[in-house]
């Protein structure tokens, strides 16, 4: 029966591309989807090295090692090399997670294996093309093909994924539609890349998975994302299993042809693959670490990475496709399939089964004293919690005390056991406990941001920025303790690139909208950040204090209040300049929260059967409509209207209406940001500024002079043509009117009264009159 089924399946006429078409997109897309691409970019250098360079090294080393012995042409040996150059990270990653390896290392392994799949498959294609076309191999042509494949594939992947992400809002949160979209994406990308555009489909699929994963995470609801993730895991599992089954069906056929010589070749292959991997890890990675491009990886981890380079479904799928490829036949084809399949089995049965013992041998699985102490402390606290709740429940239900005691006793014993080792405070230093606390805080921060995402009170891009920063904070705490934590936390205060771009755009073209949007986003970001920090402060005193002790909790509290102060300060600076907007934004936040609550109520009423389907749908539509309304970010008026700004400067009050009009033509409105150095000592003077709102400080060597609304600065350099005499730094958001040097003289001539006033002030400030 089983045999018949096997024969039926193996008799199906697949051609080589079927295997690749059906299985590879699913496997690659899923692997890419779950990788945090932004964090991966931080390790772009080692990942690219490990992935791309390692694949070339592996292909070359394996190909060259087998060539003298295998009795087939060099390209065929290289083809085999490229097939087995892909690594499957699942096993190593699972074990790394188990033993609590640094998250960065896990990312490294995942990123490497994804990109090396893409690179290896691209090389595989080029080599297969050379073999099947029967042409003389042309190295230059091959390299050019490969470069076009990789570059074009990357581009296609990015464009397609962006389109996919842009479509998500159109699906209005329907999960099945979201899943369908992502199921279609890799296959469309793959087919259009390979068959229509002539670029590497696999590379495009891998890149599209990365880009789609990064872009969609904050656009899908958290539950929507979890659903998508689960479905894809299942799909990839099925695809992987099917590949294994198909390969297994092939084994009996292959076994008939296997000779002792093949066994020898397999051993050579195993050794060459190990050598290639070790070469990269031990020779190429250290320079990167020296250049600070990569996290330091200890030798034991490198050994595990070498030994743990298992091969899986991707290698098998490629091997299967060779069995069906036209233009490669006979011994060439047999050697490739036998050795590739044999190698996969070898890594699974030998490396796979011995990986854990190897890790044990290297001592990587031992709980550090720190982790052991934490485990005891956490256990003690949770057990005490359970014991108390048993007592309470027993009292509530009026069970006799003997019953409660009998249940509690084992807990008492266990608490005794874990606390006998001593308390956390005795066992680990303050410093370690602080780091521990910071890591816990960073973890909690991530969760809190995600909770806000779940409440849909904040826009996706804001969540993304906050999540990314929470990740940086986590890594900062792990690697740099309190300093690293604070350094990473301060990153959010910096102006993002998009902000700087919008600012320059306004400066050079006067276009205000993008700048207003960026300022509004900043508002949003700090609003959420402040809420999260307040929740973190509560988390610290409620949950961390009992675990880490009063002293450490106090210190953590200080770190958090420092951050809270910085956020509050940034928020206050914005509210001071744009009070109505601040209020509108807070209102919007609350309104969205209220809508969520409203919907939750209706849902529970519906689930309890208290309201019918029709009424529920009706209510839902109402909430949806209002939600959409609330979704829109209120427009921020930067208050840079020139006429208004001019009206705010008393110096111009005496001007007649037509003079004002002329003035408006030569002046330009500008926005200064808090702490921005608007004028730098020693620069050439290109303009002077009238302050219409806000405050700046002139930084002189011995003192600082504060200037406010109606004052002006930057006039001295224009009058005497010398360099700027002082730094001028904005203290708040300021709206300014800019008078450029080329209009300066004309302006003075046309407005003698104002000119006199400017001269007077400049002389008081120390300028010498120029004749
Ligand atoms: P400028 O030298 O063009 O650039 C720096 C500006 O700081 C300068 O013009 C003045 O506008 C201002 N400034 C310099 N010295 C003083 C001062 N003593 N009091 C007030 N403002 C000053």
Could you explain the architecture of this structure?
By secondary structure, this protein is mainly alpha-helical. It is 75% helix and 5% strand. It has helices at 2-11, 16-33, 37-42, 44-70, 74-83, 90-98, 103-133, 139-167, 175-197, 201-216, 222-255, 260-290, 299-307, 313-324, 330-362, 369-396, 401-419, 424-427, 430-455, 460-490, 497-509, 513-548, 550-577, 579-607, 613-631, 642-647, 657-666, 715-720, 741-750, 752-764; strands spanning 667-672, 677-679, 687-693, 696-699, 704-707, 712-713, 727-730, 734-740. Strand 4 (696-699) and strand 5 (704-707) form a beta hairpin. The radius of gyration is 33 Å and the shape is globular. The mean pLDDT is 85. Adenosine-3',5'-cyclic-monophosphate is lined by residues 679, 685, 698, 700, 705, 713-717, 724-726, 728, 765-766. Adenosine-3',5'-cyclic-monophosphate binds at residues 679, 685, 698, 700, 705, 713-717, 724-726, 728, 765-766.
């Amino acid at each position: 029966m089983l045999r018949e089924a096997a024969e039926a399946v193996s008799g199906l006429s697949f051609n080589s591309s079927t295997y690749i078409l059906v299985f590879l997109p699913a496997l690659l897309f899923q692997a890419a989807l779950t990788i945090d691409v932004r964090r991966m970019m931080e390790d772009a250098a080692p990942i690219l090295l490990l992935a791309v360079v390692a694949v070339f090294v592996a292909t070359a080393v394996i190909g060259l090692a087998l060539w003298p012995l295998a009795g087939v042409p060099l390209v065929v040996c290289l083809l085999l090399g490229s097939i087995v150059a892909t690594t499957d990270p699942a096993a190593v990653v699972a074990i790394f997670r188990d033993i609590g390896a640094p998250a960065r290392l896990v990312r490294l392994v995942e990123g490497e294996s994804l990109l090396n799949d893409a690179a290896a498959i691209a090389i595989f294609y080029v080599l297969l093309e050379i073999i099947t076309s029967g042409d003389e191999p042309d190295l230059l042509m091959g390299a050019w093909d490969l470069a076009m494949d990789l570059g074009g594939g990357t581009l296609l992947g990015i464009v397609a994924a962006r389109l996919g992400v842009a479509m998500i809002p159109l699906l209005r949160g329907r999960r099945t539609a979201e899943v369908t979209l992502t199921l279609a994406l890799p296959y469309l990308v793959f087919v259009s890349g390979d068959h229509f555009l002539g670029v590497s489909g696999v590379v495009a699929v891998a890149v599209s998975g990365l880009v789609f994963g990064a872009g969609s995470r904050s656009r899908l609801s958290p539950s929507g994302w979890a659903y998508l993730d689960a479905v894809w895991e299942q799909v990839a599992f099925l695809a992987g299993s099917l590949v294994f089954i198909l390969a297994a069906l092939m084994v009996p056929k292959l076994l008939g042809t296997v000779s002792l010589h093949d066994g020898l070749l397999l051993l050579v292959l195993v050794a060459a693959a190990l050598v290639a991997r070790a070469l990269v890890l031990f020779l190429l990675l250290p320079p990167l670490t020296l250049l600070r491009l990569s996290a330091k990886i200890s030798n034991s981890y490198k050994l595990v990475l070498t030994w743990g380079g298992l091969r899986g479904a991707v290698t098998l799928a490629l091997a299967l496709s060779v069995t069906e490829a036209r233009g490669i036949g006979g011994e060439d084809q047999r050697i490739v399939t036998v050795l590739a399949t044999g190698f996969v089995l070898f890594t699974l049965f030998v490396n796979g089964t011995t990986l854990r013992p190897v890790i044990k041998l290297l001592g990587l699985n031992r709980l550090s004293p720190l982790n052991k102490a934490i485990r005891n402390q956490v256990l003690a606290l949770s057990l005490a919690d359970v014991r108390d709740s048993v007592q309470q429940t027993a009292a509530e239900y009026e069970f006799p005390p003997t019953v409660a005691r009998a249940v509690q006793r084992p807990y008492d014993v266990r608490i005794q056991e874990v606390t006998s080792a001593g308390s956390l405070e005795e066992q680990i230093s303050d410093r370690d406990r602080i780091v521990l606390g910071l890591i816990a805080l960073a973890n909690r921060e991530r969760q809190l941001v995600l909770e806000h995402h779940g409440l849909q009170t904040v826009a996706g891009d804001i969540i993304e920025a906050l999540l990314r920063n929470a990740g940086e904070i986590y890594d900062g705490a792990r690697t740099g303790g309190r300093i690293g934590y604070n350094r990473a936390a301060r990153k959010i205060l910096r102006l993002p690139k998009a902000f700087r771009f919008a600012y320059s755009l306004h400066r050079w073209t006067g276009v205000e909208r993008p700048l207003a949007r960026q300022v509004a986003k900043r508002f949003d970001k700090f609003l959420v950040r402040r809420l999260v920090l307040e929740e973190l402060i509560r988390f610290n005193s409620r949950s961390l204090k009992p675990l880490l002790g009063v002293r450490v909790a106090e210190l953590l509290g200080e770190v958090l209040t420092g951050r809270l102060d910085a956020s509050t300060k940034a928020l206050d600076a914005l509210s001071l300049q744009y009070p109505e907007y601040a209020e509108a934004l807070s209102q919007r936040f609350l309104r969205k929260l209220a809508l969520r609550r409203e919907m939750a109520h209706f849902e529970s009423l519906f689930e309890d059967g208290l309201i019918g389907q029709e009424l529920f749908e009706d209510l839902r539509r109402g909430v949806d409509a209002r939600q959409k309304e609330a979704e829109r970010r209120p427009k921020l008026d930067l208050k840079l209207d020139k006429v208004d700004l001019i009206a705010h400067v008393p110096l111009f009050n005496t001007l007649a209406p037509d003079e004002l009009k002329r003035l408006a033509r030569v002046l330009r409105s500008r926005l200064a940001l808090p702490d921005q150095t608007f004028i730098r000592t020693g620069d050439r003077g290109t303009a002077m500024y009238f302050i219409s709102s806000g405050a700046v400080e002139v930084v002189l060597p011995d003192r600082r002079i504060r200037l406010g609304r109606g004052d002006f600065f930057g006039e001295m350099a224009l009058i005497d043509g010398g360099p700027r005499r002082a730094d001028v730094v904005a203290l708040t958001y300021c709206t300014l009117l800019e008078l450029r040097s080329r209009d300066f003289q004309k302006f003075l001539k046309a407005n003698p009264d104002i000119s006199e006033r400017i001269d007077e002030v400049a002389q008081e400030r120390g300028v010498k009159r120029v004749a």
